[in-house]
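BUG: 3D viewer hangs when loading the predicted structure for this chain

Environment: internal workstation, default settings.
Expected: structure renders.
Actual: progress bar stalls at 90%.

Input used:
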Amino acid sequence: MLNVLRPAVTRVLTPLGRVLARHGISPDVVTVAGTLGVVVAALTLFPTGHLFWGTVAITVCVLADLLDGVLARMSGGTGSKWGAFLDSTLDRLGDAAIFSGLILYFILEDEPEFVLAGVALFCLVAGALVSYAKARAEGLGMTANVGIAERGERLVGILVATGLSGLGVPYILAAGLWLLAAASAVTVVQRMVHVYRQAVVR
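Structure tokens produced before the viewer hung:
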């Protein structure tokens, strides 16, 4: 889904990329700054109940995930192995912060919702497994780029549900978490089956 939107977003971010490139800002700086913004917003705004503005702040910071690639091209390259590693690693940190912020939100409510906190924790773990399955498969010379809930879809899903919940839409966050938990679990199984077929079924 995000791959479809990526060209349009890239066109919007290109002027900013040119400005940053002229001032010698490296893609790695943008990556780190974006992740830091996500972590701070998620762990300060979500636990205190500011779900909508937390979502807005995180969405702005997530754009750095696209801006660093634009900036790399503006700087005369297409990125580096270190840049790709840094980006992927910090993506996991950002995801962890988002779900940790929601877990704290559910626990710190006047009437704690421990079930939803558990579902959010499951989404965090399952999302990490989705990413790990792909990385491990590629490390073994195979592919695992399949599944109904890759990182982009998971991120959009949880941010939309959280933002709408912050605007007062009832039950949307709970529904979004349960759907995301199911989709993430299915994606883990899909990737395991895909790798099994490459490794065992000839």
